[in-house]
């Protein structure tokens, strides 16, 4: 009887071990497939120049970092760049209109320079007629999370963290 129990225990152990190894390798394959799919999606967005950077977190040069509402974004298309972002920090020239306090502009005159790195895409926007904004640096990771840094003529630099997503189609 004792021999049967030992055989049964060995078989049960082997069954549990094999099923554990199978489930682990299956989960890793699924994770890798999802990661590869997300990477291809993000690459397509960045290369097509047709996406939205959704800002979630603002990091001014001075003062504390803060979460922001999901309404703020930078919309990129081949022919235009639309920024609707808040600003926190020191402005060296105060805006005449208090409604002009953020980083808000629409321009069709900009350069889009992209370089692919090991784990990200580095994009530099040079704006020619956007009020107060010199350059914007967008670093997009393969997973879609991104950091946007803005340098200005009359304000301290500010950074935003968020993610890129496809632009919504207009109805």
Q: Tags for this entry?
A:
10-stranded antiparallel beta sheet, signal, 171 residues, alpha+beta, 1 helix, DUF4251 domain-containing protein, Lipocalin, DUF4251, elongated
CATH classification, class level = Mainly Beta
Rounded to the nearest angstrom, the distance between the terminal CA atoms is 74 Å
What's the CATH topology name?
A: Lipocalin
Unreliable residue runs: none
In terms of topology, how is this protein built?
Elements lengths: L1 H47 L2 E10 L5 E2 L5 E4 L4 E5 L17 E5 L2 E7 L3 E8 L5 E9 L3 E8 L5 E9 L5
Antiparallel strand pairs: 1-2, 1-3, 1-10, 3-4, 4-5, 6-7, 7-8, 8-9, 9-10
Keywords: Signal
Pfam family, one: DUF4251
Protein name: DUF4251 domain-containing protein
